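so i finally got all the pieces together for this one. its two components total, 1460 residues if u count the protein bits. some of the lines might not be protein, just check the labels. i wanna see the whole assembly predicted at once instead of chain by chain like last time, that was a mess tbh
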Amino acid sequence: MKNIFCTISALLLFISYSQAQETVYPAKEYREKIFITNGTVHIGNGEVKENATIEIDNGKIIRVANDITVPSGDVKVINANGKQVYPGLILPSTDLGLKEIANGVRGSNDYLELGDYNPSVRSIAAYNTDSKIIGTLRANGILLASITPEGGIISGTSSVVQLDAWNWEDAAYKMDNGVHLTMPSFIQRTGRRGFFMRGETAPADPNKAALDKLQEIKSFFRQAKAYLQESSHKETNLKFEAVKGLFNKSQTLFIHADQVKQMLATIDLVKEFGFNACIIGASESFQIADLLKQNNISVILNQEHALPATEDDDVDQPFKTPATLEKAGVLFALNDTHDESRYRNLSFNAGTAATYGLTKEQALQAITLNSARILGIADKTGSIEAGKDANIVITDGDILDMRTSNVEHAFIQGREVSLDNKQKQLYERYKYKYNIR
Amino acid sequence: MRKLKLLFAGLLAFAVSRAQETFPVNGVADKRNGTYAFTDATIVQDVTTTLEHATLLIKEGKIVAVGTTVIIPKDAVIINCKNKFIYPSFIDAYSDYGVITPQRQAGGFNYNAPTQFLSNTKGAYNWNQAIKPETDAFKLFSIDDTKAKPFREAGFGTVLTHVKDGIARGTGTVVTLAATKDNLVIIKEKATAHYSLNKGTSTQSYPSSMMGCIALLRQTFLDAKWYKNKPATEGTNLSLEAWNDNLSLPQIFEADDKWNDLRADRIGDEFSVQYIIKGGGNEYQRIDDIAATKATYILPLNYPQAMDVEDPNDARFVSLADMKHWELAPTNPAVFEKANIPFCLTTADLKDTKQFMSNLRKAIDLGLSENKALEALTKTPATILNVYDEVGSIENGKLANFIITTGPVFKESSTILENWIQGNKYEVNESAWNNIKGVYTLNITNNKGTSSYQIDVKNNTTASVILQDTVATKFTYDGQTVKINFSTTPQKRGVAAIPAAAGYRTNSTQPQFMLSGFVTDGGWTGNGVDTAGNKFTWTASLNKAANNMSETSHRKSSVSKPLAKVTYPFDGYGFEEMPKQQTILIKNATVWTNEKDGILQNTDVLLKNGKIAKVGKDLSETGATIIDGTGKHVTPGIIDEHSHIAAASINEGAQSVTSEVRIGDNLNPEDINIYRQLSGGVTSSHILHGSANTIGGQTQLIKLRWGMDDEGLKFKGADPFIKFALGENVKRTTSPNNNRFPDTRMGVEQVLNDAFTRAKDYEAAMKADPVHTRRDLELDALVEIMNKKRFITCHSYVQSEITSAMRIAEKFGFRFNTFTHILEGYKVADKMKAHGANASTFSDWWAYKMEVQDAIAYNAAIMQKMGLNVCINSDDAEMARRLNQEAAKTIKYGGVTEEEALKMVTLNPAKALHVADKVGSIKVGKDADVVIWSAHPLSIYAEAEQTIVDGTIYFDRTRDLQMRNKIAAERNRLIQKMIGEKRSGAPVRAAEPSWQVILSCGDHSHHDGLITIDVQEDDTINK
């Protein structure tokens, strides 16, 4: 009898989960009030409010306080007693929705365009809301992402999306927020001492090729600037048109750079044109943190879980780079670009930064409010503050630590989004097969 | 040009003393016996015998007498060698003089290129294009005087030459550097046999890795032995025939690097061959290991050039190890001498032979004795080449190969004047024969009379006229003729001191004198013209002898003593002194035993003699190092079931079955990732072959004993394993040009089926006829698997391939020990359980290729709940530092308990690797491989504070901080030194980043840093 019951309940469970991801629906619009009560609320700006209640109405945060009384009656209440409440995490630069199967299936990839100067190419146009990866990010508290094109020198224009949508127009959170540029490398690969390498001839001056490219980039922007000063054109140049927002600062220039020389070149470029600028990658930024601060350049650190750049570096150098930036006052965010775990470990990148010099709240801010500031969406999200969208994650424990990081609820603009995904469904499918409870 | 060269050679042949009987003469015969007596010389016969005021008598190209009482025959030309030194000329035991070394085309193994399965060489030769023992240098040799000249100028008279191409390179020949006739200069046709780990121009895909080269050599030894019985199935194999013939010769192995030296020597040991090893110049970094090879070495003197590190952003990417090597490389010969290891010196690897003597002097400045240097250039090479009866010392009967110098040959002030080879004179610095230094009286006579000037000659190119001021002149002396241009007016300051064409200076009112002359007895005589066009004659004679002036040229060592220390390993984080095994008592910690005791609070652990001695409360031990574990956690060391660190190559991807290759043949103990992983609590790693082919290579379990050599890393007493792989990588999904079977999972199954069928037949054949059955290293490993003497860890992803592989194994009566990656293991966990396999997987990887679309983070939990022994592995040098965190994810994904989660990176891999009796838990009697964590070991906030292997603290966070400071200070010192080198005008090269090679399995790309090379990303960098 008990067995039958088990089988039946398992069967029911199976039915409810077995229809693959196609039945994981984006949540419907929710305009009613929601109260998230008695949680430990991590605001995202460094503050923590214990036993606080969040009042949400029409998808926006109305209040966060200890003295909010929940009205009786038919109102949605989430009891967060003993739980941790966080702003929705933000993946600040990613090929999510553009790259489904990284290797061997060319047809699944839309992240890399041909050509060197493609500012008019827009990532949003190809963003696939039905990517199976998205669900695994929501389940780990990542609710927003900036979708970034790659390739060439100016790869194109990114857009910020929210991660629970039917199509890209629904997903768009901030369209065309930034233009992406890859700085030419000042390191030229040659042969190598040691055991098993074939030597190649080093270029006479490894810097020259990069500097030539830099001149080409500057020349592009100088011509664009001149072009944009004229209001009408006999011949329209879409590339120049596409960088207009950089000159009026409605867009940010995201410069993909890791080496110090690349970053110094960035400072030079940004000074000439007065762009809002953010360096993405920036693994060597710890060496020039003060310069970045002085020049008001923000930073997105791509991959916290990385090996040190040189064999002589401190073994934990990448882990402690955020603390160096924090100390220097640089506005920085953390990213997760890991191709194999597919970006879902964003909060653990922050956890590592917290182990190596940041406070936990600073680490959290680096994946929430700082990211929102850098992406130009801090007016709408990034922290649990009145007036902002109700993009909120509730967890069982510390979200920065995999040992305790279990997401129980997530809200995007007040909609409670599904935490289900393909992986959970396959889990259920095989629990069913094996009668695992 | 060629004609000119021939003409030149012809002229020299005219002077040759020995005639060649079979060659007809065009013209009048001109036989000369070439009898010369070199008198009153200091003759260094060899390192032990030096004669003063001695005579050397040569005739017909040979030495006929040497001594202080030699009777000079009447027909001898007497050459007075007063104040001159005579040495045996040098011998270079490693050159390709006079043979053409084929140049390698770009390429090598390219993961995406079509495979070339067999040799492209035409003829009845070996299957592998890199095995060409049939090459005989003496058949290809021809005199190349433009190459001989720099050798002669460096003092060499004899060289060994061979074709530097391939893994088995054939025979070398000993020739002199005389420019006479090819027929006459070969003094030993087949002198040596040559080998390397470099396949050279071979376009064949196999071998594509270091371990493949080693395996190919080993298999060829076996094949050649088998071929002696003339097996009908082989037909004629000229390569194997030659291989066997060559074995009686001295065997020279070009290893070119300290670790390769050891690898070569081990191959030799296996087949009872003592190789003579051509080293790489970095042997001083491991001299004890090098001494243990008992080999004689041939050492190059190609020290790295200083780099331009003035730009700190460039300097940053040059490793301390590379900078230290720059400083220490010239100590290599002295270190050999001190360690009493026999060695020769070679000009090989030098960009320019001219550097040889100056580089040798650097080695002497840094401790190499001059006697040893001479021996390394004469007797030692002559002995290893078996030509000491002909060359290598100045003795009766030997070839008249010697050099005449102005002084002790290795002194910087000395000059090589002449190099005599087989009785032929080759001028090197004839002009230095006479020391012309001194003040000369110059008398210029024209129709108005004679005027006198004093000229101070410093050397062959510098002189000045002494007037009221000293006026530099243009002066050249070549030993026979002399040219002088001078003005009687000093040049204005800021103007070139030497008027190059003074006569044409139109604004000059003072006369310029242009003189041309010849050496005459005791002085110079000639004629000249002045700017006014007046012609004159002149003579000059020595006024004050140079030796009246004080000799100031006594050279101070220009090479400052290197301060860099050899560390173990030779990395920034290496140890100057290896840490020692200690008795360690960890007090009052939270101890994760992985045993039935579970997690013990406030517990002590005693480590003694490399083992866990006691676990309990209130332990004490006299003499123990106490570590306060209060608030800390102690766990067994982490064991990574799937790693690719610490190896020189990982993938032998040129064939679908390469069970003959062994990771253990090419460990790299200097991989910084060993140290980095210790900092993450890893104590053992299973180093796997990559996944380029279905049956990959034999794996190597290591302990992270940072600082030990390759043998010292090996986990002793562990069962041997082998890597297999299934799916996309082995069918080369990403390659557009795959021509290697298999291209589908259907084919993969058949590769397995075929391999084990062959292995089974082979085993039977071997039993029936061990003499005539060809021993096959590839099949040996498969037979071991079938006999449960070797175990498989198999890269695998999807359920179909997993099931197929298990069924094949069952058909042949063995089991897949471990499925690694196994991201769809959850779909067939029941079948795997029934089969008896272990599972080793990633915590949360997926979607990086088609076959991992159904990978789920709950995989480990499901498999564990199904009763499988589950491990979490890294396959990633970075993630291996955080395996505790990866294990913790199984709590989040699937609700594994904390104790079980930790076991997935400790005890479970120990079980899967059959070493659970030694490691994996904290149990009395097991190896003292433990980690002390700052916090809960499954938390992201935990740091490994100490990582202990065999009771030795290999990682200590406090010591690590001290090392960082030391690295910074040492880097700074060397950068300053290199900058000083540049500022002193020494040549420097552009700063070269010290690329770090990151080897990986082959199915996912990593971008680990600015100066890393992911070998899977670009396999063409493999040989």
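The longest strand of chain A covers residues 172-182.
Residues 90 and 359 of chain A are 19 Å apart (CA to CA).
anyway lmk what u think
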